[in-house]
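User: Hi! I'm working on a homework problem where we have to compare a predicted structure to a textbook description. Could you give me the structure for the chain below?
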Amino acid sequence: MRKEIIFAILAGGSLGAIIAFGIWRANSAIQNTPQIEDTFAPQETRSPSSSFGPNATPSGGFGITLAKPDSDDVETQSPVTFTGITQPSTWVVISTDKSDYTFLSAADGSFSQDVKLSPGINQIVLTAFNEKGNSVTKTLNLVYSKELAQQQ
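Assistant: Happy to help. Predicted structure tokens:
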């Protein structure tokens, strides 16, 4: 009888230690993992024209604003019209996994371009280049599904 009690105590203690170790490892792994929202969020990067550091030339408000579509939208029709605004007469490049669209923004800075999507997830990269050599990039993900269009 004493042997059974000692065995039960040792087995319970070992099982408890294994479970506690597993919980500790899971918590430490979660704390070191980047957040999923950060991975798929729209990203915007800027490149300076010629210098770095405190004497770098600021981009002077140079940017690109996309009116539609929004990142992580689900589209049921292709092509999709990208509309937005940047500086006047700026070269804009819209890149998909299969093709690139290059055009000049209008005199007021607005732009509109039809872009063909492939079925599934599409990572779209919009880049604008001004006359000073500055560039600004915006990345977004769109999902194109023919199945959703058929169900509606």
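For your comparison, note the following. Residues 37-151 form a domain with the Immunoglobulin-like fold (CATH 2.60.40.10). DSSP finds three helices and nine strands in the chain. Good luck with the assignment!
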